[in-house]
Amino acid sequence: MNAIFNVVSMEEFKRISTIEVAHTTWNILQTVCEGTKAVKINKLQQLTTKFEIDESVVVDENPSDRELSKNADLQEAYNKLCKVVVKDAMNVDIGLKKIASLELGIVTKKWICVAIFKAIALLVIVFCILCYLLKRRAVVIQGSDETNGENGLLASLSLDPSINMNEILNDGNDGARFSVISYTSVMAATSNFSLENKLGEGGFGPVYKGKLAGGQTIAVKRLGRNSRQGIPEFRNELIVMPKLQHVNIVKIIGCCIHGEERMLVYEYMPNKSLDCFLFDSKRSKLLDWKKRFNIIEGIAQGLLYLHKYSRPRVIHRDLKAGNILLDKNMNPKISDFGIARIFKPDELEANTNVIVGTDGYISPEYAMEGVFSIKSDVYSFGVLMLEIVSGRKNNSFYHVDHTLNLAWNLWQEGQGQELINPSISDSCVQFKVLRWIHISLLCIQNNTNDRPTMSDVLSMLRNDSIPLPLPKNQPFSFG
Predict the structure, then answer these.
(1) 192 φψ region: left (φ > 0), alpha (ψ -120 to 50), beta (else)
(2) Residue 265 and residue 252 in contact, taking contact as beta carbons nearer than 8 Å
(3) Could you tell me if residue 205 is left (phi over 0), alpha (psi between -120 and 50 degrees) or otherwise beta?
(4) Active-site residue among 88, 318, 336, 377?
(5) Which of 227, 352, 382, 400 has the most CB atoms at less than 10 Å from its CB?
């Protein structure tokens, strides 16, 4: 292209009469040679179009031969230039179109990527929002189902003629905490009451270990179908236990009613009951001197709470080793309030025609006259203390006629140390254990007025300097 400018200069174009054509041709040449990459397609097309319009050359009407010759040369040069310019313009136009197309493709791909990214981000946000809404809806539905289930169970409780709901539900003043657990939750927690989860069986019915959906381990006491005492005990525990809040009282979590099913749900005690240790030759060795003292003191504190500090006051009436549960740290908790009785603040004793309790633990006045009071529990506590010291079941303390027990005979003979369990005889402080036996005999005296209160018992256990009175008579046991 530059070779063209070597042949034809600007001055030569200016000398011809077709000045407009020359300038147009020159502009096109200059555009093509110097600024092809920077020129827009439309501008180049405009210049080309203009050039094509002005393609005819206007000359003088009477030119000379020289001028005609010169004009002919210029015309030939001009025609050549036109061909070159048009060809180069077309090539430039095609190149620019390719470049524009390539740039457009790159820009298009870029925007497509941006659009895809935005779409993905939007989908992720929408997905997260949907998940949140679904989860929230599930929680609301679950809460609604649980509320409806609890309301249904409460309605079932209110229809049970053996239960007074006004006595069970918290009135805001007695500190009661009570939950109604659905049958589905209990079934799932106990693996459909599998044998692997069965902990044992008592007068009320079988007891199962379970785990609620929230992770809490529980013990489920299921009313036996042939249990005669089950319904009254079920009702009684629902009335009494939710009102009791003490570290040495087992905690009731709630209950479940489903058709004819009646279940009580408690906190789980991993070491089961005290009798599993006391009367087992191998496991009894795990109860050293310190543990036995802590167990005795804990039971005494629990009874003192029931008799004096709880609202309402409660008489347990069935205190025994089997009803003392042990947590993971071997701390004792009094359980099984199925036959417990609530006392009014000014009530000292009560009468009954139906004697309930466990053989060997029943006090004389209760067995013979049907009279019970806080001193009835004190009597049972004295028997339990002797069991903890000796490791022997209470029935073995007495002769066939129940007039004299082994503990009393050994004490009278000055051989009280013979009653101490061999597993602690070497490690214990003997005079302290003998003091325990002495306190036990004070608790199991026949006359209720001679027995100490649980407040007195705790003071005597904790303070060795407190003098102990002598037991007045031989103890009796009925069973």
Answers:
(1) left
(2) yes
(3) left
(4) 318
(5) 382
Tokens of 66: 């020289």
Q: Which two tokens stand for residue 244?
A: 């009791």
CB atoms < 10 A from the CB of 383, how many? 25
The secondary element (H helix, E strand) that includes residue 78 is helix 65-159
Evaluate if residue 341 carries a pLDDT over 70: yes
Crossing angle of helices 454-462 and 430-443, in 10° steps, is 170
Instruction: Choose one of 120, 139, 162: the last residue of a domain.
Output: 120
Q: Are residues 377 and 304 in the same domain?
A: yes
* Domain presence at residue 304: yes
Q: Tell me how far apart the alpha carbons of residues 150 and 254 are, in angstroms, rounded to a whole number.
A: 11
Lowest mean per-residue pLDDT among 215-219, 293-297, 300-304, 406-410:
406-410
Domain that holds residue 109: 2-120
Q: Left (φ > 0), alpha (ψ -120 to 50) or beta: where does 350 sit?
A: beta
Q: Dump pLDDT digits (tens) for 372-382.
A: 999 999 999 99
For tokens 């804990």, what's the residue? Answer: 298
Q: Which residue, of 92, 120, 148, is where some domain finishes?
A: 120
275 is catalytic: no
End-to-end CA distance of the chain: 131
Tell me the C-alpha to C-alpha distance, in Å, between residue 56 and each of 11, 29, 47, 48, 90.
Answer: 20, 18, 16, 14, 20
Could you tell me what percent of the chain has a pLDDT over 70?
63
Count of Cβ atoms closer than 10 Å to residue 366 Cβ: 25
